TrEMBL record:
Keyword list, A-Z: Transferase
Origin species: Altericroceibacterium endophyticum
PANTHER family linked to this entry: GLUTATHIONE S-TRANSFERASE OMEGA-LIKE 1-RELATED, GLUTATHIONYL-HYDROQUINONE REDUCTASE
Stretches for region Disordered: 1-33
A cellular-component GO term for this protein: cytoplasm
Transmembrane portions of the chain: none
Domain annotation GST C-terminal: ranges: 160-286
Taxon lineage: Bacteria, Pseudomonadati, Pseudomonadota, Alphaproteobacteria, Sphingomonadales
Protein name, per record: Glutathione S-transferase family protein
Domain of life: Bacteria
Pfam families linked: GST_C_2 (PF13410), GST_N_2 (PF13409)
Catalytic site positions: C58, Y183
Positions contributing to glutathione binding: W89, K118, V119, T120, V121, E136, S137
Length: 328
């Protein structure tokens, strides 16, 4: 995979993403700082100070876009939306309004001129100090969940203390089995590695189907971050992973509970605007390792706006800290 080597863009980094057995290994994120409402913190929560660098196609960036919408942070945390270019994710302008094309790797070298590693989205950028705060989506969604509550008055909590155990339980299942599992299948370079990864994907989907047939959300009655971490993979599955990544044993449309669950989440206020099917499908089919001939299939046709039946199961929406405090 391409990336930066001592601050210089290279088409192939020296440390391979594939093991000798042909397994795809996702590298760790390099930036893991947090934003806090504490005025003495290194990165203080302030409207307009931080920018999210994302791409429509990327599910990891999709997590942060979903959380930004749910927490009504559109006026607090602006975004830059990129596309694949000759040197990785590329944007129409740079962080200071510099006219593009602006490859994301230049943002990484603004922070660290000698950076070595992959150049990934999402990136949470501090416009004031010209530094990367965080490039790990799991961290960023938790930052967005709480750091700016005092500025928005939105106290919805996607990671409430009372549900930590259930949330972490499902996160620990969904990340290796689905979120990263589809990539391990799609980027495998050996048959045994591919089959192990693909079978793991469907074992995870089967488990989710069984659970969601009886429960409105993964953590029960409440919709939490675990649901949105699953959502970004589910919404890409039939249009991209099923074909481009060869995860073709079944479609999400073949799972009654999962397909209805997916439609409910897609129809949540503000979420449909974070999904661009017209970008997602061609992007995945443009990956040479997954689709060397570059041909984009004409199907499938999906309608995530269709009616769903999830109201038949008891649900309480997203945990509201303000309401819970009032009740107490």
């Amino acid at each position: 995979m391409a990336g930066l080597l001592n601050g210089q863009w290279v088409e192939k980094l020296p440390d391979p993403d594939q093991s000798e057995a042909g397994e795809y290994n996702r590298p760790s994120s390099a930036y893991r700082s947090a934003i806090s409402s504490d005025p003495d913190a290194e990165f203080v929560a302030e409207p307009g100070r931080y920018r999210l660098w994302v791409a429509w196609a990327c599910p990891w960036a999709g997590r942060t876009l979903a959380m930004r919408a749910l927490k009504q942070l559109e006026e607090i945390v602006p975004i830059s939306i990129g596309h694949r270019g000759e040197e990785g994710w590329t944007y129409d302008e740079g962080p200071d309004g510099e006219e593009g094309p602006y490859p994301l790797h230049r943002l990484y070298t603004l922070d660290d001129p000698h950076y070595t590693g992959k150049v990934t989205v999402p990136v949470l950028w501090d416009s004031r100090t010209q530094r990367i705060v965080n490039n790990e989506s799991a961290d960023i969604i938790r930052i967005l969940n709480s750091a700016f509550n005092g500025h928005t008055g939105n106290y919805l909590d996607l990671n409430p203390d009372a549900l930590h155990e259930q949330i972490d339980h499902w996160n620990d299942i969904i990340y290796p089995g689905l979120n990263n599992g589809v990539y391990r299948a799609g980027f495998a370079t050996a048959q045994t590695a591919y089959e192990a990864a693909a079978n793991g994907v469907f074992e995870t989907l089967d488990l989710m189907e069984s659970h969601l047939a009886q429960n409105r959300y993964l953590a029960g009655e409440y919709c939490t971050e675990a649901d949105w971490r699953a959502f970004v993979s589910l919404v890409r599955f039939d249009i991209a992973y099923h074909g481009a990544f060869k995860c073709n044993l079944r479609r999400i449309a073949d799972y009654p509970a999962l397909s209805n669950y997916l439609r409910e989440l897609y129809q949540w206020p503000g979420i449909a605007q974070t999904i661009r099917q017209d970008v997602i499908k061609p992007d995945y089919y443009s990956i040479p390792l997954a689709n060397p001939n570059g041909i984009i299939p004409i199907g499938p046709e999906v309608d995530y706006a269709a009616l769903h039946n999830r109201a038949e199961l008891e649900g309480r929406g997203i945990w509201d800290c303000a309401a819970e405090d009032s009740a107490a």
